[in-house]
Fold this sequence. Notes:
Rossmann fold; alpha/beta; about 40% helix; single chain; about 220 residues; two-stranded antiparallel ribbon; six-stranded mixed sheet
Amino acid sequence: MYRDDLFAQIADTLAGMPTTRARLVGLNGVDTSGKTVFTNALAEFLAARGQHVTLIHGDDFHHPRALRSQGPDPVRGYIAHAFNLPLLEAALLAPARRGASVDKTLTLLDLDSDAFTLTRRYVIRPDTVVLVEGVLLFRPPVDEYFDLRIFLHVSFDEVLRRVAVRDVPRYGPGIVDRYHARYIPAQQWYLATYRPQERSDFVVDNTDYQNPVRE
């Protein structure tokens, strides 16, 4: 299945939902699974069909490095402290789910500088499709808000291949050790605990991110 065919299926599913409030779509997958590329392309596809689309990137809701590193267990610490999910819920998801209009600018964490210098404006109307993409996403407190769940699947071998291409040139070879020690174990725990693939409306093999295939 070509990407546009898959996007058309998603668009048709959204079209069958009531439009009295924003429709909230969660896009999940392990690190490097291609969530941002997929979500940006889906947003363009929906916008071309006349939809008002708002993007929310989970990475923008990281806690500062000191908090993310809190605790003796690096895996459980990452799971518990990496993301400010209560802020995402209170500022954006809860009001959108209630049918309220949102026009809000948030000051968020810039990951590279570890400083709150990133500003994002979010405009959500009752006719908006809200695309929320991120890791560890289909879990409390935000999982209950999604009307549609999309899971992008890649193997952990593919994760490490992409890390070598994407992350090592930027962060150095030490990033591979962090994936082995922290990120991959955290994802394995999340997959086993919350079973996001089993609860998703669309499960997509995204090994070839230009030609995703619905499983």
